[in-house]
Write a structure and sequence with these properties.
The chain is built from eleven helices and no strands. By secondary structure, the protein is mostly helical. It has two domains: 45-145 and 241-271, no CATH class; 156-237, no CATH class. The longest helix is centred in the middle third of the chain and has 31 residues, at 161-191.
Length: 271
């Protein structure tokens, strides 16, 4: 043994790290992974969809008509069509779609519970069913079309470029910053030794680094867009001939509009 070494370096080390639960890190990681999976997941297996612009327009029109309809028959027909379309999804996507719709319906039931207690249970049931169908339709579109196709189709409806840009960048950077959070949580798990009684500080550190990383990525994105000559304007998709899928979808939408008008007139005539 080298006599020049300090005494404390020659003493044997006998350190046993105290056990600590990593449930905090595990739950945080699973939460981030769940959000990223929902954004990235698409399932167009067996679905006969038209162009993104046609599908987005169809879903939005159905939701608006269902919201203003005073006849639940129209909502039930849309519900049946949405459930029929959802059967073509894979099992995981179908389970996610139904779970999301039921969660939204449960929230609407909770918010409208005072109305039911005040003697208007029919209002609570009507609004909850419409919320369920609306969320189911939107979830079908999000599962079938990638988000860049959805945002790109908004230009066909003359949506302002600033709104499209904000939505597009927000969705993209949710994924990028989610990956940053996952990497930091993994690094935190690997570097954690012993028992940590102040896990909240670790979470604030992750959020702080994510914020700084977002500022850095924003500056890099701005520089890249300036170099590529982007001026905040999205080009309108090239006009193409209407295919048979679009024609069938538009014909279906026209039939639903006619059915909506018929049910509304029937209510007015009976009232």
């Amino acid at each position: 043994m080298d006599p020049n070494l300090p005494v404390w370096m020659t003493e044997p080390e006998d350190y046993t790290a105290s056990k600590d639960s990593d449930g905090f890190l595990t739950r945080s990681t699973l939460s981030v992974l769940s959000v990223l999976r929902k954004i990235r997941e698409t399932s167009n297996k067996g679905l006969l969809w038209a162009s993104p612009a046609t599908m987005v327009a169809t879903v939005l029109v159905l939701i608006v008509l269902m919201a203003v309809s005073r006849n639940m028959l129209f909502s039930y027909v849309v519900l049946a069509e949405a459930l029929l379309a959802s059967l073509f999804l894979c099992s995981k996507a179908l389970a996610r779609s139904v779970k999301t719709s039921l969660s939204a319906m449960a929230l609407s039931l909770l918010l409208l519970l005072p109305a039911a207690l005040s003697g208007a249970p029919r209002t609570m049931l009507t609004v909850s069913i419409k919320v369920f169908v609306s969320v189911l339709l939107l979830d079908l579109v999000s599962l079938t079309l990638p988000f860049n196709k959805i945002t790109g189709s908004l230009k066909s409806f003359r949506v302002p470029d600033l709104f499209i840009f904000t939505l597009d960048i927000t969705l993209k950077y949710i994924v990028l910053l989610g990956d940053v959070c996952l990497n930091m949580l993994d690094a935190l798990r690997l570097r954690s030794v012993g028992k940590n009684r102040e896990k909240g500080k670790a979470l604030s550190g992750v959020l702080g680094v994510t914020f700084l990383k977002s500022r850095e990525m924003a500056d890099e994105m701005y520089g890249a867009m300036v170099c590529r000559g982007f001026e905040g304007e999205y080009e309108r998709p090239r006009e193409r001939s209407v295919g048979w899928k679009d024609a069938v979808t538009l014909l279906f939408l026209a039939g639903m509009i006619a059915f909506f008008v018929y049910t509304q007139r029937a209510i007015m005539a009976g009232g």
